[in-house]
Amino acid sequence: MDPQEYQQLEQQITPPTPYVKNVLKAFLVGGLICTIGQAIMYLYIIFFDFTDKTAGNATTATMVFIAAVLTGLGIYRKLGAFAGAGSAVPVTGFSNAVVSAAIEGRTEGMVLGVGGNIFKLAGSVILFGVGSAFFVALIKLILVTAGVVKW
Amino acid sequence: MKKFIIFFFVPFFLIGCSNEQIVKVSNNAADGEKREEIENLIRDTKEVYTGTAILAGDELLVAIQVNPWLGYKEQKVEKKLQKEIKEKYPDLHVLVSSDYKMHWESQKLLNEKDSKKLKDEVKKLKDLAKEET
Q: Which sequence ranges are marked TM in the entry (chain A) (predicted)?
């Protein structure tokens, strides 16, 4: 069998990817996670002294905590298998990446295992997040100094 | 599928149709003319769908909610209204805010009778609006 024949055979056997179904699932679950986040934000605003400006940080922390607990219990994995990007794109996906990497490295000890692996997946997010934030701030600083925009 | 779409989306469109403005000014304000003028100023701002003004002595808190699809204009609307009220009443300490917290708390203060308590609450809310962390 030559490579072309093999490729044809493979394409025949592989079931087609249900793109529309996947997108719908991701949309619904991602939307649901964001709705829960919005509800938590309103809880903070209504019952505590938080404003729109300050409630964001507390809400993010709460969502990260909930996702970390769900990851520990193995529930987030099932959600991820069902929703794909819908569960990975919100900040809860970031939490899941950190906690699951930490759990994975647990058997190798606290320092080299958990400490060394915890940012295995999330490290790139932090690196490029901090990097791009630095450059955006630099551009804004230049624009403010030049008098184009205000802070 | 078609029925499903109609079931879910028609209510949204119907809700979107109601564009009635709700503007309330606290009853405690002694000066009726001032109350009416502030109410009209808020009403003239077309982007606002809910506005609540709390007048306590020389403190004025105006909590507005801007139409969701005009959210990007929120800051501009705030500033415009703040400037308009400030120009008309230079002696008042005005704060116009589109924050949900201000909206929520000002609804509760609408029927507050104790003027000292009202003033304290308005001051507290204004401090809260300045909070960044």
A: 26-48, 55-76, 82-103, 124-149
Residue identified by tokens 């003319």 is: B33
- With an 8 Å Cβ cutoff, is A54 touching chain B? yes
Cα of A55 to nearest chain B Cα, Å: 9
- In chain B, the DSSP E strands lie at 22-25, 48-56, 59-66, 93-97
Closest CA to B129 of B99, B106, B94: B99
What residue type is assigned to position A87 of the chain? Answer: S
Domains located in chain B, CATH noted: 20-130 (3.30.300)
> What do you get for the CA distance between the two ends of chain B, in Å?
46
Task: Tell me the HSE value of A151 on the side-chain side, using a 13 A CA sphere.
Answer: 2
